[in-house]
Structures are given as structure tokens and as C-alpha cells.
Design a protein that fits this description.
With about 45 residues, this protein is an all-alpha fold. It contains one helix and no strands. The protein is rod-shaped.
């Protein structure tokens, strides 16, 4: 049972890391084109 919980923690941490990587891609690398103004995100 303890091993299962440890595995779940590791998998959760990996999933969080992947989501953070994806968020960084969206935040810093994807730039909507001028032809799609509705897709532009407000800069904060």
C-alpha cells in the first residue's frame, strides 16, 4: 500500500511538471497571428 502511494506521488509530480512545461510553451512561444485577434491573450 505504501509503495502504491509513493508511485502515485511520483506520477502526480511528473504530471505537474509536464503541465508546467506546456504552460511555458503557451506563455512564451506561441504567438497568435494578426489574422486571429480573438485568440490573443492579455499579457499580465
Amino acid at each position: 500500500m505504501r509503495d502504491d502511494r509513493e508511485l502515485m506521488k511520483l506520477e502526480g509530480a511528473e504530471a505537474i511538471g509536464q503541465l508546467q512545461d506546456l504552460a511555458n510553451l503557451v506563455k512564451y512561444r506561441i504567438r497568435p497571428s494578426e489574422s486571429h485577434p480573438a485568440l490573443k491573450l492579455p499579457l499580465s
